[in-house]
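PROTOCOL LOG
Step 1. Enter all chains and additional molecules of the complex.
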Amino acid sequence: MQGISAKIISRAKELMRDGTVNKVVGWKAGEFFYDCEPYVFETEESLDGLVYNRFCAANLSKYMIKNSIATGEDSLKVLVLLKPCDTYSFNQLLTEHRIVRENVYILGVGCEGMCDIDRIRENGFKGITGIGENADGKTLTVRTLYGDGEVVIDDVLVNKCEFCKGKAHKIYDELISDNEDEGPRGDRFAGVRDIEAMSPGERFAFWKGELSKCIRCNACRNACPACSCRKCVFDNNASGIASKANTDSFEEKMFHIIRAFHVAGRCTDCGECSRVCPQGIPLHLFNRKYIKDINEFYGDYAAGEEAGQRGPLISYTEGDIEPAAVSDKGGK
Amino acid sequence: MSLKKIALNELNKLFAALSLTKKVYLPVEKAGQYDYAPWEAGVEYRPEVLHTVKSAKSVFFPQSEDLVRYRRSGLSLNIECEAPEDEDFVIFGVHACDVKGFEVLDRVFLSDPADTYYKARREHGAVISVMCGRPEETCFCGTFGIDAEKPGGDIQSWISGETLYMEALTAKGEEIFSQLGGIVADAGEDDAKAVEETLSGHREIMKKLPLSSLTTEGFGRDADLLGLFNRPEWKELSASCLGCGTCTYVCPTCQCYDIREYNTGKDIRRFRVWDSCMYSDFTMMAHGSPRPDQMQRFRQRFMHKLKYYPDNYDGAFSCVGCGRCLQKCPVSLNIAKVMKKLGGAK
Amino acid sequence: MSENCTGSCVPGMTKDMLVPQLAVVTEIRTETPDVKTFRVESPDGSPLFDHMPGQCAMLTLPGSGEAMFSITSSPTEKGYKEFSIKRCGQLTDALHAIEPGQEIGIRGPYGKPFPVDTEFRGQNLLFIAGGIGLAPLHSVIDYVRANRDAYGHMDILYGSRSAADLVDLEQIQNVWMKEKDTNVYLTIDRPQEGWDGHVGFVPAYLKELAFKPDCTAIICGPPIMIKFVLQALIEMGFDKTQVYTTLELKMKCGIGKCGRCNIGSKFVCKDGPVFRCDEIDELPNEY
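Step 2. Run joint prediction.
Step 3. Record the structure below.
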């Protein structure tokens, strides 16, 4: 991915120089190799700090809500770097009228899968001082304070990349990509089926164990491109449910289940919720459960496949499944 | 010093012995993540786990705790307070950074008027610290003058090979030793040498930490408050902040709280809960908020740690360099980046 | 500051500052369409706590929350505390709906009072208030009235949106206006039938009245009014060290620990709410 990184920087600089765009939303190098930070580049020189490597998992679509709305008199044209999966979120936000499309220039960037630093740490690497991608494109060399080693990229992919939706960009103005679309990677519903196969007691215990770790930091909600309400019900003191902690075991589940219901049909499975969770709760499983159910009930549907589409949950047809079908599933 | 020792694989005996009379908190695994929780048979201490997700502060200052129960009927109101902690407990496995974090909280909660609930837990809790085994690249406790090799608490300890060496620092610590009886043995001269070797190895690693050169220059009591507050860099530093509370909730020194009510149906519980200055409703009043932008909320958090807190508490900083925020921020913003950008000469 | 817990608390426990004491609302007066004054006493008639003008207390009506309010009554009025409260949110809506006899929770006093026994002594005093901003000044004015000889001349300039929105009009007309060596100036924002007094905003009226800067000014009102009043006072030759105001931010603990009412290194609940205007200049502009 180093190759296209240089191309991206030079193209972004060009577009800024010729006045096509006046800002660039991309990723900036951090303290370490792996902590790339979403960043708004406002000058050509600052673009030297732009990086595109195996640790640019953050989905930049949601940043375009605030960055595509002009606040001053100046004309605004913002370049945003979107990976294939990010374009689904962008489309969904367009569908929901959250982004001003004409103010955005989408530079689609190819992706070979992003790595999860936590999974690298789980492989026993402590005190990581450097990470390099090897020429084989399949392994990383990890340098640490306590010795160096190698990991296989496939073993440390971010969950959303482990189950990549495909390498095709669903919306863009220009592409920089060496990828060929090989379609989806892996069976993203396998984890959902595992849970469906559990007895109700096991399933309850599973979610209880996971959700009781929640610290109500709201990272999942704030990172989620489908959570773009101007005021969330959980922040609204008048709602009566704006608690900042799980006051009881009911609430700790309620927050996540309500959130999953609210994004059902709009969630593009971008995986940000699970990626950002400091407690490693597999929140994407909720969303995939709904996606799987929607697919089974209404036929395959991918939110964000194209802008302006009407999802099955908001378009009634006479052929729609009867609600009883859900209870017939025995809570699965 | 009087050094005691116990084999790591005997630690469960130590926990079991202490558990006879008090709760023993230590990092416990739950669905893949470690947080402080009471020891029970079957729980193993895992020295290779550097950090719990929530810091050790959660034992003394829990994320949520009830303070008062109200019952209303007609015009009458009954007010009943919750009882403060009245049983002794031990917290095991705290590293130097989190121990120093307690001191940061103490200055706030124990200063007059003291917080009854926090004070009771501090009085009843004993801290057994353990020197961190393998610091991570995100560690920078040295920046705040913390000596990771002297982790402190009531008993401090070091792991060398397969043995835990312990030293009591307070009367509470001595009392724990007396309760342990033969479970811990007296260490000899060779043991002291082994500990010294571990310490010198640790010192070498600390020097190599990538953030070891980070300094507090430009912050603290002597820094110009308005100058720092008005720095233009706050805008770019905070541009991608999601406004979530991750940094706050994993932080060992963040101490801001909210007080809220919960109607159980039978009574109304008034509880205290961690809050985050990163949240939009933190300062929201009926007629608006003095910090309407995320930039202002972001700035508040770091100004608090690096300027306001030192102003109010004799120059001490409200950061211990544990590095949790460096590891957990969903968009890789953190105090180290802020200090590098704004610190040093203007 | 802690005291032993009474009532249904744990025997022998030291009461935490965050735990309210029981109080009863003995009288409710409707001042304006959206302001009521509540008289609060302890159920057995013993004193609730001592306070000084400018200090605040936390009132709670369980189920509707808790908030900080200025104590409107003067400490010279023993046996009760009064609070003039404007309806503007969940708790204040609920308080406006209660009847006399309702038991509530109260804790306090909080904050630094006006320096009524030090800097204000012997001074001419100029009070400038807008709307519900009269509440904290009310306590000072009554304190000065009760110790009238210790202070110089007193001018009170008070304005509101309309005549009906002037809080405490009856007391102002029947008591304050008759107080010796005291002038009261009232104004409303827009002309209305039956009002033959002054019409116009407080800062404009202040300039019209052209007070000499030989007094200490004490102002409270909406932030925008405070801003323009302060400007006007400076133009009139006042120094910021002669001007006091009180600030309001969201508060939860009242004791400088919950961390939300800070302006820079100062906590409004503990280091304020009363500030001298030159002190405010040293604080970040976040209030």
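Step 4. Note key features.
Chain B is about 35% helix and 20% strand.
The longest strand of chain B covers residues 64-73.
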